[in-house]
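ok so for the tutorial part 2 we go from a plain amino acid sequence to predicted C-alpha cells. step 1 is just haveing the sequence, like this:
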Amino acid sequence: MDGVKLRQEAEALRNQRNRVIGNTSAEGLTENMELEVHQIELSMQNEELQRVGLENELSRDKYRKLYDFAPVGFFTCGTNGLILEVNRTGAALLGMEKDNLLGKVFTSFVLDEHQHIFSRYCKLLGQINTKQECELNLRRNDGTVFCALVEGIAEKETDENDTLCFLSVKDITERKKNEENKVNYQRIESLGILAGGIAHDFNNLLTVILGNISLYKMKNLKQEKNLELLEEAEKACQQSTDLTLQLLTFAKGGKPLKEVISIEPLLNDTVIFAMRGSNVRYELELSDDLWMVEVDGGHIRQVVNNLVINAQQAMPNGGTVSLRCENKHLTQEEGLPLNVGPYLKITVEDRGVGIHKDQLNRIFDPYFTTKAQGNGLGLATSYSIVKRHNGHIRVESEPGQGTAVSVYLPAIPGTALSEKKAIEPLLSGYGKILVMDDQTSIREVIGGMLTQLGCEPAFAVDGEEAILLYREASERGEPYDAVIIDLTVPGGAGGRQALEEIIKIDPQVKAITSSGYCNDAIMTDFKKYGFKAALPKPFSLEELSRVLRNTVMDSM
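step 2 — the prediction. this is what the C-alpha cells look like for a chain of 556 residues:
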C-alpha cells in the first residue's frame, strides 16, 4: 500500500470516528460505542505507523541512491581496516564490484611509499574527533595508480568499544596534474626572464667579438689562411647566439624574424656543430635545387639541432644519424594538418631505441622525457617553433627499430639556389650616424664598423642624450642620416621612448632598432613602433652594411 492510500484510509477512519462521537446522546457513549471508537483509534494509529514506516523507507531509498551515486567514494572501515560499507563510486574508483570489495583491507590499495602517511593519518583520526584529510596514491585493482584526496572522521560505537572510520575518497589526479603544469609554466616564465637577461648580456659581448672579427677581416683580406680562421670564429659566434635562443624561444615564445633563405647551408652547419665530439656518424642527403623558405634561421637551426641531438642520444652505443631534405608538394591525400602546396620536408632518422606507442602522444609535452639526461624541452621547443612557421612535425617510431622525425616547412618553389648567394659589396659612401648604447665597448666597435663603411659616427649613452644630440644637429641644419638605437638602457630612457621624442623633432627619421633581446616585440614588429629596420645583436660588418644600404643609401 502506498502513502496516498494510507492517508485515504486514515482519513476514512477519522471520519467514521467523528460520526460515532457525533451520534452520541447526552447520556454519553455506551460501552459498545467506546469499544468501537477505541478500535477505530487503534486502526488510525496502525495506519499512521505504516505511513511513517513507508516514508522512512522511501527516504532511506532516496538517500541510498544519493550515497551510491555521489561523485565521491564513501567508505566505512572498522578498526582493523576492513571495508564494512562502500558506495558504488568508491568501488568504481578502486576498479572492483561493490560486493567483492567488502571485507577487503583499505590499506591494501595504498601504495607502499604512502603506507606511512596513511598510518599516521589513521592514528590522528583516532585521537582527534574532527575531520582530517590527506593525499595518497592509491592503486586500482587493474594496477593503475591515481592520486586521491582522503577526508575522514572516526567515531566510537555506543554498544561496543570498536571505532569506525568514515572516509570520503576523491580522484584528484587531474587537479594535481594541472597544479603541476601551473608550477612548471611559472618556472618556465621565471627561466624566461633569467634567460632573456643572459641572452641580452651574452649577445652584447658577442657584438663586440663579432664586430672586431669583421673589422680584422677587412684588414687581412690578402691573407687567405687568416680569413678562413676568422670566418670560422664568425660562424661560432653566430651559432653561440642561436644557443641562447634554445630556452628563450620556448619560455617566452616570440614572433620569428623571418627572411627568405636557402636551407642547405643551415642544415650543413647545424649537423656538423651538433655532432662534434660524438661517437655517432651522420649522413646528409640534400636534394638538388631545394626550394627556398621564409623562416627565422636561428629558430629553425634550433629545431634541427634538437632533432639531431635527440637522434644521437637514442644511440648511446654509436650508429648513424641520417638527415634528408627534399622538395614536397603536399596534397590532401597526405593526411597532414597542412594546407595543400609546396613544402620542404626535413627528416632526421636514427636506428636507436625507439619510442613506445603509449608515449608518442606525449613527446611534445613540456618536461616529458624518456632520457636520464634530458630536460623535456627540446621537442616541446621544436614543436612551438615549427607551429609558428605554419609547419608541422610528424614522428614515426618503433621500439628497438629507431625513430624518424619529419619537419614540413612552407616553401617558395622556383627560386632554389644551388650555390652561395653573391656577397653584396660593403657600403661605401658617407652619412652621419648617431649610435645610442649604454655600453662603451659596443659604441666603440659599432663606431669602428661605421668608420670602415665610410660613415661619420656620433654617440649617446642613453635616450635623453640621443634626443638632445638629434635636436641640436637638426637645429644646426646638419641632421643625422640615421640613428641606431639600443632598446634597453638600465636606469634610463630606452630606444622606444627616445624614438617617440625624436619623431617629434623629425617625423622622417631613419631609425634602426638594435637589441640583445632578439625576441622583443619591437624587434619582430619594428615598423609598428616607428623604426625602419631591426639589427639583432650580435651583427657582422656585412649585416650592418646591408641594413644601412636598405635604410639610408637607398633614400639618398
